[in-house]
Amino acid sequence: MAKRKLRRAPAAPKSVPPVLPALIGPRRAVPREIPRPPYALTGDPGRSRPHPVRSPEVIERMRAAGRAAAEILRYAGHHVEPGLTTDKLDAIVHEKTLSYGGYPSPLNYRGFPKSVCTSINEVICHGIPDSRPLANGDIVNVDVTIFLDGVHGDTSATFAVGEIDEYSTMLIRETRNSLYRAIDVVKPGVPINEIGRAIENHARKFKLGVVREFIGHGIGEEFHGVLQIPHYYDSRARAILEEGMTFTIEPMLTLGDPSLGVWDDEWTAVTLDGRRSAQFEHMLVVTAGGCEVLTMCDDDAAMGHDASGAAVTQAGGADANP
Ligand code: MF3
Ligand code: CO
Ligand code: CO
């Protein structure tokens, strides 16, 4: 029998139509009684650089902020549907954050004008909520950070809007999986670059690109701390993980080339080739035996992971919305 000619899967197409800038509404108000981070007034986060290893007391507060962030993210995700504008998503996240007595950390952080980042299709990260309605077939990352009781909780997920194509489904699934492969390697004594190695190895299996310009970060009393967590293998990232370190891992994977450009708004990062990008983010603390994910939510559990990041069951929950 004649051998059938092997064909490569066609490369994922450019995301069309492209995401374009739309109208950005006024900044949302935060009631006087809600405690604010230092940059809320000026936009300048200052130079405070707390030690990357946090006290049990700070970690306890981060547990509460992390749980709140996870709940707000899940709440926002349940509202994602065709026709909803990202400005409405901003309102939903803003109000929910206030209901916890928290401040939405993105608001005026280095001048960011809104309360959450919403990044659609070829937008990699830092998308500014605006008047664009979500369309059937879009994918959207919602990146929630809350400042609660003096510490930040930071987590994000990418959601499907209505029915999405098979490339986007795979991109979302494997970006999430790459985050869990990375969480799996976290324990005291391991060099930080093992995190990026795990993400890169996973991405390679699915021919996905790994964005290099944005990395995970130390977090706690400050939004972005000194620890730097590349999502690719970086031989120079040799610092050793220690119990009590708190940081995020937030890989951005792409269907094509991960090279990026930034819009004139100086925030919105997009792939130069126009192909789609997805991102998932968790905040975690290194423990004696591994790590504890501080932003776990029920939906992660439904996807087969517990707070140590370990797979506890066969990955269930095949649906595209996390
Ligand atoms: N939440 C983002 C992160 O994961 C940071 C957003 S900064 C903002 O690090 F100013 F755009 F909000
Ligand atoms: Co974030
Ligand atoms: Co982050």
TrEMBL record:
Residues 1-54 are annotated as: Disordered. InterPro entries: Creatinase/aminopeptidase-like, Pept_M24, Pept_M24_MAP, Pept_M24A_MAP1. GO terms for molecular function: metal ion binding; metalloaminopeptidase activity. The keyword Hydrolase applies. Residues 60-288 form the Peptidase M24 domain. Coiled coil: none annotated. CDD domains: MetAP1. It holds the Pfam family Peptidase_M24. Keywords: Aminopeptidase, Hydrolase, Metal-binding, Protease. The keyword Protease applies. GO terms for biological process: proteolysis. NCBIfam families: met_pdase_I (TIGR00500). HAMAP family: MetAP_1. This is Unannotated protein.
